[in-house]
């Protein structure tokens, strides 16, 4: 069988699978076909052009039927059972999930989740840091735990150094980690008032920063004998720096906050550099997060904070909390249940399944390389699995990018509906350009002028009866656009029915703004040539002012954006006579 035949057979199978399940992601198809994601994406483009599937962000949807509920489809496994929950990666999170657990995210992003969830309420549980509009925050008492560790350090300093502790504080400028450092220093001074803070350094919660800054601090201040690390990542950097500098273990001790995973438990057990630590118990935090999400899903009232327990542990007391087994370190749950106060009832071995349970939860987090989040992801998955709940693990940066792409794609689809037969339009270069061009591939009797290379690539072999015109000019690789005198001269000769404009910033006072002067000149000529100006901008562009003003906002006739744009801004724009259209999400 030649390559062409194999491709055709694979495409036929893809169409059959997509029609059967309504939607499949690229990854799911690649697993089914035993092919790479790149190959599958190429097949999907071909099938979309043949009008055999609908290409979506992240996968393909059937043209034969649409699920009754967004995201609803099932794939029967080899055992004949349905999976726990449907998946539609081309749908926003609020469609895919029943509740979301967030860890240390930007408030703007969690706010976006709630604005999106206005169509379907998406309960959000915060972990570590309280955030606006969340149901509750699952957190340790950072200040008190830091204070108690500081008291341990003060007692140690009095016993070993006559109270003369010289402290290097490896901190991070977030409310929770700053509270740890503050509590530690105040606890230390409560017992050892002569203790001295030599340096407080922001390690940005990174191993390499902690390693280098510890080396630098110890090289300059040889009297440092106590290092407080606000998390295990910083502690490991400090340990390795001390080892590489050849510092005696009798000369200096390191105290850490977290005991986040097996690696740090090993270090505490050895008792070399780490002499004491705050155990935050990711096993407990994980289960409480899941239980809080279940409670929120069932509309049960939750307090503003669910405070999880902690313990100060040393190499001598570690075995009271953890035991080493053939599977690694395991928490002694009976000790925890007997001695510590939990904010919600837990039965870690057999959680209650006789209650309304969500089908699908999400856990979205930053610092994916940190042991704390690795442990949370592992233990949440395990606990949710015992309840028959599927947990979707979401990297913050990728999730934010995917959500934004979904919104931009919907803006492009709505913008395409503005184009009528006989129109001459200009598509500006920008993040929404290519998707808008894809939406216009089959259109008849329209003329598309553009300075954007992605638009030219999308429409160059269009099956529709459209005329495609490039401005020409110097090619700017950074923005994949044509600029300069040839493009500018060409624009002076044209009259455009509709301009689909993109911009870096949109504000009431500074108007439409952009970052590159050569592109600004082109945009200004587009504006002069257009009868109607339609600005395509997602919510992140608003209340932003880029380097150079393109034009006053009043030059825009319509704005097509997404529903995360605050109502207050929409009202301001409406008062200026600008029509604001929200793309359906």
Can you put this structure into words, describing what you see?
By secondary structure, the chain is an alpha/beta fold. It folds into four domains: 1-90, Winged helix-like DNA-binding domain superfamily/Winged helix DNA-binding domain (Arc Repressor Mutant, subunit A, Orthogonal Bundle), CATH 1.10.10; 93-140 and 282-313 and 333-399; 142-279, Response regulator (Rossmann fold, 3-Layer(aba) Sandwich); 419-582, 3-Layer(aba) Sandwich (Rossmann fold), CATH 3.40.50. Helices cover 40% and strands 22% of the residues. A seven-stranded parallel sheet has the order 20-19-18-23-26-28-29, with helices on both faces. Strand 21 (474-476) and strand 22 form a beta hairpin. Helix 8 (207-220) crosses helix 9 (232-245), helix 15 (396-416) packs across helix 16 and helix 16 (433-439) runs parallel beside helix 17 (453-459). The longest helix is centred in the C-terminal third of the chain and has 21 residues, at 396-416. The chain is elongated. The protein starts with a helix and ends with a strand. Mean pLDDT is 86; it is low at 65-89.
Short description:
With 585 residues, this protein is α/β, with parallel strands linked by helices. It folds into four domains: 1-90, Winged helix-like DNA-binding domain superfamily/Winged helix DNA-binding domain (Arc Repressor Mutant, subunit A, Orthogonal Bundle), CATH 1.10.10; 93-140 and 282-313 and 333-399; 142-279, Response regulator (Rossmann fold, 3-Layer(aba) Sandwich); 419-582, Rossmann fold.
């Amino acid at each position: 069988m030649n390559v062409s035949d194999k491709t055709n057979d694979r495409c036929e199978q893809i169409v059959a699978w997509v029609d059967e399940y309504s939607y499949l992601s690229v990854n799911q198809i690649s697993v089914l076909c035993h092919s790479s994601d790149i190959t599958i994406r190429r097949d999907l483009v071909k099938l979309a052009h043949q009008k055999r599937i609908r290409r979506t962000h992240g996968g393909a949807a059937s043209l034969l039927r649409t699920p009754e509920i967004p995201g609803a489809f099932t794939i029967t496994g080899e055992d004949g059972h349905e999976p726990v929950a449907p998946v539609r990666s081309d749908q926003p999170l609020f469609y895919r999930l029943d509740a979301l657990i967030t860890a240390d995210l930007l408030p703007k992003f969690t706010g976006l989740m709630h604005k999106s969830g206005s169509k379907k309420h998406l309960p959000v549980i915060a972990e570590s840091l309280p955030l606006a509009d969340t149901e509750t925050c699952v957190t340790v008492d950072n200040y008190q735990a830091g204070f108690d560790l500081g008291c341990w350090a003060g007692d140690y300093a009095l016993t070993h150094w006559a109270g003369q502790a010289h402290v290097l504080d490896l901190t991070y400028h977030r409310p929770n980690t700053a509270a740890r450092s503050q509590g530690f220093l105040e606890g230390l001074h409560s017992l050892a008032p002569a203790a001295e803070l030599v340096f407080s350094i922001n390690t940005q919660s990174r191993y390499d920063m902690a390693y280098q800054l510890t080396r630098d601090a110890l090289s300059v201040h040889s009297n440092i004998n106590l290092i407080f690390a606000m998390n295990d990542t910083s502690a490991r950097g400090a340990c390795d720096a001390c080892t590489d500098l050849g510092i005696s273990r009798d000369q200096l001790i390191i105290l850490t906050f977290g005991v986040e995973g097996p690696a740090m438990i090993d270090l505490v057990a050895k008792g070399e550099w780490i002499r004491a630590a705050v155990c935050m118990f990711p096993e407990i935090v994980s289960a409480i997060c899941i239980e809080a999400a279940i409670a929120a899903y069932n509309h049960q009232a939750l307090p503003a904070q669910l405070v999880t327990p902690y313990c100060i542990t040393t190499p001598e007391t570690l075995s009271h909390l953890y035991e080493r087994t053939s599977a690694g370190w395991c928490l002694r749950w009976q000790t925890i249940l007997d001695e510590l106060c939990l904010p919600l009832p837990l039965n870690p071995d057999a959680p209650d399944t006789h209650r309304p349970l969500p089908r699908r939860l999400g856990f979205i987090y930053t610092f994916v390389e940190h042991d704390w989040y690795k442990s949370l992801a592992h233990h949440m998955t395990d606990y949710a699995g015992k309840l028959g709940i599927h947990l979707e693990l979401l990297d913050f940066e990728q999730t934010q990018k995917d959500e934004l792409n979904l919104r931009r794609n919907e803006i492009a689809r709505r913008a395409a509906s503005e184009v009528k037969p006989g129109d001459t339009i200009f598509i500006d270069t920008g993040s929404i350009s290519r998707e808008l061009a894809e939406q216009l591939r089959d259109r008849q009797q329209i003329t598309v002028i553009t300075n954007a290379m992605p638009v030219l690539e999308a429409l160059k072999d269009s099956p529709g009866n459209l005329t495609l015109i490039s401005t020409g000019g110097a090619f700017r690789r950074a923005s994949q656009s044509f600029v300069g005198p040839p493009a500018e001269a060409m624009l002076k000769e044209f009259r455009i029915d509709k301009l689909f404009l993109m911009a870096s910033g949109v504000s009431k006072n500074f108007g439409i703004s952009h970052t590159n002067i050569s592109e600004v000149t082109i945009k200004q000529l587009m504006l002069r040539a257009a009868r109607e100006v339609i600005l395509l901008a997602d919510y992140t562009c608003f209340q932003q002012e880029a380097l150079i003003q393109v034009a006053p906002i009043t030059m825009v006739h319509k704005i097509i954006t997404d529903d995360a744009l605050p109502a207050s801004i929409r009202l301001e724009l409406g008062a200026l006579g600008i029509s604001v259209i929200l793309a359906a999400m």
